[in-house]
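Quick log. Single chain, no ligands specified.
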Amino acid sequence: MMDKSTGIRVVVCRLKGGLGNQMFQFAYGYARALRLNAELQLDLSYFDKDARHGGFAIERFELSDKAELIKLGFWSKTLVKLEEQVIGRVDRVRGIVHEERTLENRFFKYGSQLYLNGFWQNPSLFDVYTQQIKRAFRLKSFDYSSEFLNVKSEILHSQSVGVHFRRGDYVSDKNAASVHGVLGEAYYLKAVQKIEESIECPRYFVFSDDIKAAKKELDFLENAVFVDSVSDSMVADMHLMSLCKYNIIANSTYSWWSAWLNDNDMKMVVAPKQWFSNQEKNQQCKIIPSEWITV
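-> predicted structure:
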């Protein structure tokens, strides 16, 4: 099928980074494909050279029968590089997108294909298709451990608050540390205060890539469960966080998605005002939905 007004038959979305980043990329690409009545292809070429975050991470979701996995051939990769180099001289594709190109979000048309290469961390770019995207991010069935099932039951039967404490590459990788910075005790104290102003008897479920550091930093939490990974999949932990009735997230796309996928009608999400270390970049950031609380 092809959108006659644009000539677009296929939307090709480049996946890169970790799980949360890939989810933003898929969500935006899927929304573009739905709007254009086009096919969707997920370009996995990036992971041939950089699989630091586990490579293609969203395969544990159902995704969509609309999505096809591909790897660009040599000449297509060359074309992508050339287009990126002359990105300032490439005309915008009429009717395709509403936001301007940036250094982080790039797109161009070649033939009947629209190629997307970016991070697209703005929910307004795909929120028209919220229900379709949530269906795409349903977990595939797998063998749940008894630990997973026990934690899930506790979450469903309490005033559960999912707390994400991010360390990992935010500490070990100088570039990630300089971009994001690390949230400390002060943020979590303010976030917990917001929760406890509105919620009676909250039970905190803490998820972290460094559970030892989380226990030390968040030792002020009462009625807390520090969840050691209940699966070999980050997707399973994200799913558990999304089942919590309320969320306190880190400056991390991973915990962002756990909160966005939370279907509790009365959910409360607390997020950090300071998403990036750089103040100018932080002011330009559009990742936080207006109904979430920032501290």
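The first helix runs from residue 19 to 36.
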